[in-house]
Each structure stands twice: as structure tokens, then as C-alpha cells.
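Final report, section 2: Outcomes. Of the targets proposed, DNA-3-methyladenine glycosylase II is the one most frequently requested by collaborating groups, and we therefore present its record in full.
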Amino acid sequence: MPRPSGTPVTEHAYISHLSKDKKLQKIIKGPLDAQEKRRNFPLRLIAAIMSQQLSTKVADVIYARFLALYDNKEPTPQQVAATDPAVLRSIGLSNAKVSYVHNVANFVIAEKLTDARLHKMDNEAVIVCLTQIKGVGRWTVEMLLMFHLHREDIFSIDDLGIQQAMARLYKLDNSDKKAFREKMKTISAKWAPYRTHACRYLWQWKDQ
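The predicted structure is given below as C-alpha cells.
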């Protein structure tokens, strides 16, 4: 709906909330880009598995080869499950990753999981459900929650980029891993219910 002329633009609620943290406020440069609505969550998990321990550039090449196997259309879990392991290896996937890709497809089929069902679950339920799949860890599901299900209050404590950014911004000593994680939890608790947005600001700042 168009905004009537003369009506002030209201600040995004997450910006005003996160700006209460004076250190975080320094790196907030206006609203974040809106996330596109995406479907086909099994494919997002598969893409995340493919990209593990690879540069973004290499991961993009492998994912493009993967889509090419299906005429550059997003495959269904049934199509992925029916794809011969040798074919998946031929695009540059290791034996372990081939197995994990098939694990995702088979689990989704067996559990009759859909995007709609995931949207109805709370964050922890999604994590518990999907980490049953061998090859899918908590970090992978947190990325799915943030960027596919658009959950606003996810804090990915194990993400290396978040750890590096927080150590730098808050001048935290990360030599004692346990104490460092506790400090991260304490700081991030104040960002709730907008911890996803805080993570995105931290990544953005680190990348710049």
C-alpha cells in the first residue's frame, strides 16, 4: 500500500531494538536487504551440504552442475533419491557428501516433510527434526531457519564468522573457548527477539 505523502518512514523495529547495544549500533547501516521467499527446503539443505568446507565459488560451480543433472530445474526429493551415486560423484562430490545428499532426500520422503510442516514447527523442533539426518548438523539447520524459514531470532553460536566478528567488535578473548561462548551468549541474549538480524549485521560488517 503506498504511503501517504508527509507520513514519516517508521524505523524497522529490529533496528531500534538492536541499536540499544551501543557497540552493535556502530555497525548498523540502515535496514537489511529483504530475504526472498524460497520453497523446496530439502534442496536448501542439499546445497548447504555441498558447500561444506568449500569456497563459495567452488560450491556454486558444483551446485550448478547438480542442477544441470535435472535440466536446470529444481529436483524433487524423489528425483534426488533415484540419482545414481556415481552420477553425483561425477559432479565433484565426495563419497560422504553423496551419502548425505541421499540421506536428506530419503528422510524427507520417509517423513513426508514439506515446507508447510516446517513452518508450523518452532525453531528447536525444526533443529531436533532435521539433525536426525546423518550429515546435517545444527549449524546447517540454523542457516535454513534464518534464510529459508525467515525466523528472526536465531543465534548461530558455532558460526566462525559470527565468532570472529564478535571477538573483534566486543574485544573478547577467545583463547578460553568455554568462557568465550558464555560471553557470546550473554551479549546475544540482549538482541532477542531479533538475533538473526544481529547475525546478519555482524556478517555484513566482517565481510566489509
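Residues 1-10 have pLDDT under 50 and may be disordered.
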